[in-house]
Every structure is written in C-alpha cells, then in structure tokens.
Write a structure and sequence with these properties.
7 strands; ASHA1/2-like_C; Alpha-D-Glucose-1,6-Bisphosphate, Chain A, domain 4; globular; 7-stranded antiparallel sheet; single chain
C-alpha cells in the first residue's frame, strides 16, 4: 500500500478552512480536479456518515467516488473512506483520506493524507488529482476573502 501527503497554506482562519473542506455549499465550489463539475452527490463531510459524488469532465466522462466520514473534529480534522466505482457502479478498493488543519502565523495549513492506495501509479494519480483540486480550493478561498 502507498500513501500520499500534500500540504497547502491558505490566508484564512482555521475555522474558515475547516468549513470550506467539510460543508456541502463550500465543497461543491471546489470538489474535484480542474475541469470537472459535480452534478450528482450527497457531498457533506460535516458529520459522520456516508457520502458520494459523481464528477463529470469536459468530455462527459463520469467518475463516481464514495465513502463514509469516519472522524469529525472541528476545526482540526475530518477523516473519510474513499473508493472509486466502476462502470457497473461496483465499489472498488477502499482507501482513507484525512484533512488536518493547522493554524499558522498568517492563516491555516491544510494537510491532505491519502492512505492505503494500491500502488505507486494510484498514488501518482491521486497526488495529481488532489493538487489540482486544491488549486480550485485556493481560488474559491481567494475570491471569498
């Protein structure tokens, strides 16, 4: 199994960053890599329980991912399981994601830990996806600050 860690700093309070990464209204503004939108979802990480999202890219390809929020500690961290679905909607290998928020001198840092990915190829793909997704989060936070 392989793990990915990405750290990104934002010039917002830890409370604002935590809301952005857990509340549905905020999540829908940035969830998924650049170039996708989320037409179907139960995307809310602001409490324990199931979630899912369907991301659609510009070519019309659909990518479904689902999981359960397993830990919720505002404004410090939220953890959730993560599994992609295949074309028959069968859930694949399950990994685990944790968003940890740390206060900094000029705002807050988001640490994304994605654990138990199958292999290096999966880790590289997820790293790229998270980096692109965090670019979208940065843009949303900048326009709202």
């Amino acid at each position: 199994m392989t793990n990915v860690r990405i750290e990104r700093s934002f010039r917002v309070s830890p409370e604002r960053l935590f809301a952005a990464v857990t509340k549905q209204a905020d999540l829908l503004k940035w969830w998924g890599p650049e170039g996708v939108h989320v037409p179907e979802h139960s995307l809310d990480l602001s409490g324990l329980g199931p979630w899912y999202s369907v991301m659609v890219n510009d070519a019309g390809e659909r990518f479904k991912v689902s999981g359960h929020v397993t830990s919720y500690d505002p404004p410090c961290s939220v953890g959730f399981t993560w599994a992609w679905h295949d074309d028959a909607d069968a859930r694949g290998h399950e990994s685990h994601v944790t968003f940890t928020i740390v206060e900094t001198d000029d705002g807050a840092q988001l640490i994304v830990d994605h654990h138990e990915l199958l292999d290096e190829e999966s880790a590289l793909n997820h790293r790229g996806g998270w980096q692109s997704t965090l670019n979208r989060l940065a843009a949303v936070l900048e326009e709202n600050s």
